[in-house]
## 1
Amino acid sequence: MPELRQDPVTKNWVVIAKERAKRPDDFIRKRSVAEPHVCPFDYGNESMTPPEVLAFRPENTLPNSPGWSVRVVPNKFPAFTPENGSETTMNNFYRLRKAYGAHEVVIHGPEHNLSLATYPNEQVAEVLRAYILRLRHHEEQPYGNYVQILINHGKEAGASLEHSHSQIFVTPIIPEVVRNELVGSASYYNENRRCVFCDMIEQEKIISERLIDRTENYIVFSPFAAKLPFETWILPMHHQARFELLTDDNRYKLASIFKKTLQRFYIGLNDPPYNMYLHTSPRGYDKPESYHWHISIIPKLTIAAGFELSTGMWINITSPESSAAFLRNALD
């Protein structure tokens, strides 16, 4: 019989439809090959992007020239811009405001055909360093109420360019999904005096069947109420609300397990399209004891249909337990 499972943070319900379930290996796809074209993110094409706002490069190289290892540039077609605008009301009913903020691209490396699953650990750690530096920068700006870092990997997941990259969206409002997590985790803390994410980690350690990987510092698992097949979370084992407070040592350790997790998808599911996002505490959040930063990785293997769109409730046709078992064994 299908199961209804409730997310302990947001209290949203998910359907785990075991009768409709696919075996995990049914999702393995033929790897797509992009048509050759001139890529603005490739080494030597720096003039094809807006001027860089951050780059890791030797001191003897000029900005916007070859020699870089990680590069951050404004998005050429931004969804949010730093041009200020006051909130207005139209017809005393609809609310409208300028999309005040920022929109940037983190180019993970100069090589066109590599990704975070195939880069050396040191390169992945440098990408994480860029995340941290841009988080710190944007949180000091008047528009930086929330910074959303994400990856769209593959055309089906929304990537317009094949070259490995992340996007940084800086918004003047707290997005609804994040706000629901903040409200849910604060409510749990007020009732139990504990972080819901910390308690979730303890449950996953005890139950272990959804556990994918674990080190002294990080845990990787498929969440109990996973919305989609192979949804995977990475959390620090010790409580931390703000991602930008990572030490260099923990950043390198995160790079290792982050890359290893992406390798499980790369090898087990033949480099599927996926969305990755980082949720971290917003600027000035006054309940850091209740929130826990986390990374979510969701392969783009199914589509939202009428039920999901009409109800906001997801039907997952592969149990998180079977997804976790498949990913655990992917590197064997």
## 2
Amino acid sequence: MEPNKVIVDTHALFWFILADKRLSKKAKEILEYTQEIIIPTIVLLELFSLIKKKKMLDEFPEIVRRIISDQRIRVVSLNFDTLGTVINDNLDLESHDASIVATSRLLNVPLVTKDRKIREIYKNTIW
């Protein structure tokens, strides 16, 4: 049974918005049909950094428009519960990845990610 909501990490969101072939078939299907796509705020900041790095800043407004126009998307803020989970879990991840995993754990929602290190440490993932 497919989840009715998922959390998405930066590259998965980027590839989904751009219909990039690097998004796995399973991730694509789930992101197309799930009822809710949850985006941690850190993912939006990372998305901006990724777009800047790829010299695609002129496309950023359109990418943001696509995110905003998808009624299934809900942005969740970093909060003290997330911070506490990051501290308690003490995972061997960079802080931004640890906060994404913590959000997934707190909401008990699978995380769509290609990140191998995250998938090795945290099992509630989809790729």
## 3
Amino acid sequence: MLGEGLEEVMLGEGLEEVMVGEGLEEVMVGEGLEEVMVGEGLEEVMVGEGLEEVMLGEGLEEVMVGEGLEEVMVGEGLEEVMLGEGLEEVMVGEGLMEVMVGEGLEEVMLGEGLEEVMLGEGLEAL
């Protein structure tokens, strides 16, 4: 399901289910994803290959998600989110300005109102 008012959408091969909301400017989804749900009002979304489930909230400016993630949930109102490869589960709250998450994390949960968060590799949980 692709919403109305999209400027550019590129979806990779082998996807099982993709739902893209309205008002997006650019969406690029990699191959081998099982389920991708992208909210409305995003400016740019890039999702890597091999993800099992990705849910992106509304009002994001730019989201880049690496390969090999099992589940990613990104809240609304974020300006930029970059998630590394090999994460098992990432949940990012609303109101963050910039989030960069390194590889090898098991679970990351970020609260609202943070300006910038940078997480290194090998952390179990934050």
